Amino acid sequence: MTFRSKIDRPFLTLYGAATLLIAVSCFWPFFFDEEMLLSAAIILISIFIGTIAFMLWLLLGISYVFLDNHLFVKAGPLRISIAYENISLVAPTSDILTGMRMLSSRDALEIFYPKAFMGSVKISPAEKQRFLDELMKQVPRDKFHHSLL
Questions:
Q1: Taking a C-beta distance cutoff of 8 angstroms, is the pair 119, 112 a contact?
Q2: pLDDT in tens, the chain (149 residues)
Q3: Which of 6, 20, 27, 103 is the most buried (most CB within 10 A)?
């Protein structure tokens, strides 16, 4: 079963601001360099398109997949496999500025497991309750923070 990430307004605002900043940075020379070489223009346009495509891949490519023995989390080129038996705690979180984050919403869950970079991964499934119900089928209930039960 596959779940997509919830995308909230602050993340869209952040991505919009980043896109604007990248566009200004890439296209600024077009307005002030009257003798810009074609090769320089192609490079700047390629950098803009490549960077925006990568950002969209990171934002829209977030998914959480339940497999037989593990939860597979991916965001663009980043991939994590979390064995169900290694999950030590699942807790709600709104702290999305620290740790390993594969999310696009402040309405998030933090999954703790021993081999995690910085101890945990933070995710934000769009269908949070359905996701938790599915995870509870794989992980013992005592691993869930009381507010999730």
A1: yes
A2: 999 999 999 989 999 999 999 999 999 988 888 888 888 889 999 999 999 999 999 999 999 999 999 999 999 999 999 999 999 999 999 888 888 999 999 999 999 999 888 889 999 999 999 999 999 999 998 999 988 87
A3: 103
Q: Which amino acid is at 129?
A: Q
- CB within 8 Å of 87: residues ≥ 6 apart: 71, 111, 112, 113, 139, 143
Q: 110 CB contacts (<8 Å, ≥6 apart)?
A: 89, 90, 91, 92, 93, 99, 120, 121, 122, 123
For residue 101, the surrounding DSSP H or E stretch is strand 100-102
Judge whether 139 and 90 are in contact, CB under 8 Å: yes
Supply 2's token pair. 């596959």
